[in-house]
Amino acid sequence: MAKRPSKSLPGLPVGRPGQGGASRSGPTGLGGGTVPLPGAAGGAMGFAPRPAQTPQADPQQLLAAIQQAAALYGQGRMREAVEVAQRILQADPDYPDALHLLGLILYETGKAAEGEKFIRQAVDAARKKRTTVPASLWINLGNARRAQKKYSLAEKAYDEALKIDPRNQDARLERGTLNQLCFDHDAALADFMKAIEIDPGRLSAYLRAAQSSVDAGRFRKALEFCHAALERIDPAPAELSAFIGMVHERLSELDLAIEWTERALANGKPNATALKSWAKASRRKFRKDGEKLLDIRTRLEAADLDKFEPENRRALYAELGLTCDELGDADAAVGWFEKQNRESAQFGKTVGIDPEDYVRQVDELHESFVPDFVAGWQSITGSGVRTGHRAAPVFLVGFPRSGTTLLDQIFDAHPEVQALEERPTLVALVENLRSKKAGYPGSLADLREQDRDRLSKLYYEEAEKHGVDFTRHVVVDKMPLDMVHAGLIHRVFPDAKFIFALRHPASCVLSCFMQDFVPNASMLNFVTLEKAARLYDKVMGLWARYREILPLQVQEVRYENLITDLRGEVKPALDFLGLGWHEAVSDPAAHARQRGSIRTPSYAQVTEPIYNRAAERWRRYEKYMEPVMPILQPHIERFGYSL
After folding, report:
1. Which of 117, 259, 370, 635 has the highest local Cβ count within 10 Å?
2. Residue 206's closest CA among 221, 218, 217?
3. Per-residue pLDDT tens over the stretch 572-595
4. DSSP reduced 3-state for 281
5. What is the pLDDT of residues 321-356, one digit of tens each?
6. Quick check: helix, strand or coil at residue 499?
7. Which residues have CB under 8 Å from 546's CB, separation 6+?
8. How far apart are CA 191 and CA 206, in angstroms?
9. Which residue segments constitute the domains of the chain, with CATH numbers given?
């Protein structure tokens, strides 16, 4: 029996959207909002009204009340909607529509777990009353579960919705978004394409399909969906023009990017996607034209950036910083980068990401990996490599902004190599070890052969999701900060080789401070130069410890040498991997443009011919770098760089 809700919902944010209340687009961040409540249009949220189960409940009064509550919800008047729904539940504690509405409001105001409970009660109440459970209820249940990363349960809810109505477009779109979050891009595209087939006139279906294609690195496919939308939707909405411009910028088709983003901006309405892509494409196109760069700066500074969402504001501050850097105005550039990083830090606080968690993990690994710990490891035979595989995985690591994306393109250009670009291949292994009694890294000591093989299997399952073929290629797994897990890698794959990308420590730290990374626990350590330098110190200290106590096979590739003598620096690395020289690797920019699927923040640089303008950039920022140089000096000296 459904539990009667309390008469108040403590802590429930209320008010109109954008004023501390619910977001009408839902909290998933991928455009996956909630299914509208039919009650706002005169129905009772998909439920046929039935007589109340309690003597004092008048069915017609309840129907009128739930329609009123749904209308208030549709207007964003959440507190009033809650009050009406709670009055209904005082009359009938098992009224499904009221339970559904309360759950939906909780979900949309960031309380997904509480929302899920009420929506689940609505399902149970509908069944108890022998009332049809509408697809919309299952979809919203799936959305609430998805917001909590209960992905298997969310999938079951969407599947229930599709059993009721196989042509429900919302169910297809939301399940597709779930598959997208799970990196199952083929399944996501199948759902989105089915949604387009159901209603070819709905823009969001095309945009979700296009975004899923971008996430998978299939930029040309994304453009196909966009142009299919153009055939159905005329004139092109600004949202669609902005997206097309963004994709062209990612493909380094700068003239087209500027053309489409200007179309999106022509109506004079704020459009953050269009403005970001226009600024980026224009800066890249006119990098050597000081007058044009000044125009870009002026246009961005004149825009009212405060009206945009924090994520977009952050990206626009980053563009202003990079434009000022190109203009040689280091002081202005630092000011904009500081604003960008304050937005990142605030985002981390808002969503509960603590960058110190990552620092503590690095410290714990450093404290654990001592000679006695490794000496006590149980002996394991074999290499962890599957029969029939050409070689053990190769791990391309280094501190962020050390040239790993350039190296990724260079190696991937070789016909016998397949590069895997920044995929979370080690996450499942770390989680598996953390679940054991000794935790991670402690449980590495007692691994038996079957444990190692299980970890190896987890690694290959994740890597192969992304289309790599270990039987035909030498696979280069590029995830720069996986260097902190070199001990785990060596334990699972003792024959694994490492390509270590190295760059002047001051250049790395400054570049990380300037870069608009997607905020996560590691990247949020770059919000100040001091934090970035301290993380560099800790990560490189851990790497030095691994090199000291483990027989790692490592080939260093130095960025400064790479950009002046590519063959001289890359040929020894290919020899190290047992591969001959191939002329294709000498033009990574051409390969990057042909590949058309670079997902990292460095995509704009690696599609250009190799340049050296950033090699000594840090010297232009010396007065800002000076306070952190004592932290970096030991590493500068150890790696043979100069101050």
Report:
1. 635
2. 221
3. 999 999 999 999 999 887 776 666
4. helix
5. 999 999 999 999 999 999 999 999 999 999 899 999
6. strand
7. 369, 483, 486, 487, 490, 552
8. 11
9. 1-148 (1.25.40.10), 356-638 (3.40.50.300)
